[in-house]
Structure formats: C-alpha cells, structure tokens
C-alpha cells in the first residue's frame, strides 16, 4: 500500500480550495473538524490519521480554526501557505524546447533580511529548476520561464523584490552555453 502524506494533502486541499472552498469542494474536511468533538462515536483508522494530522498542523501553526456562525472551518496560516507552496513547487518543471532561441532569462532579486526564509526558498527552487547562479541574487536560465517566475513571485509574496529579464548576451557566456549544452 502506498504511503500518503496526509498533512500534505490537507495543506494542498486548503491552499487550492481556500476557506470557503473547503466547505463547497471538500465537505469531508468540515466533517473532520467536527470530529474533534467528544461526540464522535466510531473511529476508523482513516478518521484517526486525518484528525491526528489536523491536530499536528494546528499545533505547528500551519492551519487555524475559524468559526463562521455555527460552522467551523480550517484555513491556512501564512506559515502553512509557505509550506504548501514548497510542496506544490516541488512538482514544477520547465519545458525545454528543441531549439534554443538564443535568449537568456535572468532573475535578479533583492529580498530583505526579514524575508530570509523566502529568499532561501526562492534560491532552492531556482537551483532545483536548473537555473545557474551568477551571483547570490542573480540567476540565469536559457529557456522561457516567465510564467513560472510569476508563480514563484506570487506564491512567496515577493513580486516587487524579483525582476525577470530576457537578454541577448551575457559577458563571458561561453561557459553557460557549455553548461546547458547549447553549443
């Protein structure tokens, strides 16, 4: 049987559905929150794991309970959103065309020290996606990736801190061409 990361599923479901969407798109999530009450009569293994995972997420500050009228909802905290983004971004890849258009994509960022974890997360993702570091805050890639960079900027709330450029030439670019196999 394949192991499922229940916490990852919960975080990503809430991230996609949002607070209101959880009630509409995943009614079972609301039932799970209700299962915290001592009125629960029958505990299945799945119920136990789901409740345990939600308790862990609450304790870690990744989700929080919100009451709207008589209904309890769960929603992501900022910390939970960041973790969900890490999970989601782990599945991203950049499509590489058969022929290079001879343009470099340069990412420059100036992210303040109080957002150090986001800065490190951005560097980690750029590296994982295949970008090459020219300097600590300057990264380069040979293929179109503007939409992906927009997604990263949006997910990490760093839109004004990151600049995306397409350039025709980089000084001493021969080593970059060799690195990316573009000769």
Automatic annotation (TrEMBL):
- A Pfam family annotated for this UniProt entry: PaaX_M
Enumerate the UniProt keywords alphabetically. Answer: Membrane, Transmembrane, Transmembrane helix
Which Gene3D superfamilies does the UniProt record give?
Answer: 3.30.70.2650
- Biological process GO annotation list? DNA-templated transcription
Indicate the segments forming the Transcriptional repressor PaaX-like central Cas2-like domain, all copies: 98-169
The UniProt record lists the keyword Hydrolase: no
Query: Transmembrane stretches, by residue range?
Result: 9-30
Q: Which domain of life is it from?
A: Bacteria
Show the PANTHER family listed in the entry: PHENYLACETIC ACID REGULATOR-RELATED TRANSCRIPTIONAL REPRESSOR, TRANSCRIPTIONAL REPRESSOR PAAX
Q: Would you tell me the protein name for this molecule? A: Transcriptional repressor PaaX-like central Cas2-like domain-containing protein
């Amino acid at each position: 049987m394949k192991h499922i990361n229940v916490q990852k599923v919960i975080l990503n479901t809430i991230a996609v559905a949002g607070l209101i969407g959880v009630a509409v798109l995943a009614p079972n999530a609301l039932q799970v929150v209700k299962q915290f009450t001592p009125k629960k009569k029958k505990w299945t293994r799945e119920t136990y794991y789901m409740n345990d995972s939600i308790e862990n997420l609450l304790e870690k500050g990744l989700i929080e309970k919100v009451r709207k009228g008589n209904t309890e909802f769960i929603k992501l905290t900022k910390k939970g959103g960041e973790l969900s983004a890490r999970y989601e971004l782990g599945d991203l890849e950049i499509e590489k065309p058969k022929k290079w258009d001879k343009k470099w994509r340069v990412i420059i960022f100036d992210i303040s020290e109080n957002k150090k974890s986001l800065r490190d997360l951005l560097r980690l993702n750029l590296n994982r996606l295949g970008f090459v570091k020219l300097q600590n805050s300057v990264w380069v890639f040979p293929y179109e990736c503007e939409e992906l960079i927009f997604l990263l900027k949006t997910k990490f709330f760093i839109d004004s801190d990151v600049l995306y450029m397409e350039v025709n030439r980089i000084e001493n670019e021969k080593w970059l061409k060799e690195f990316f196999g573009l000769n």
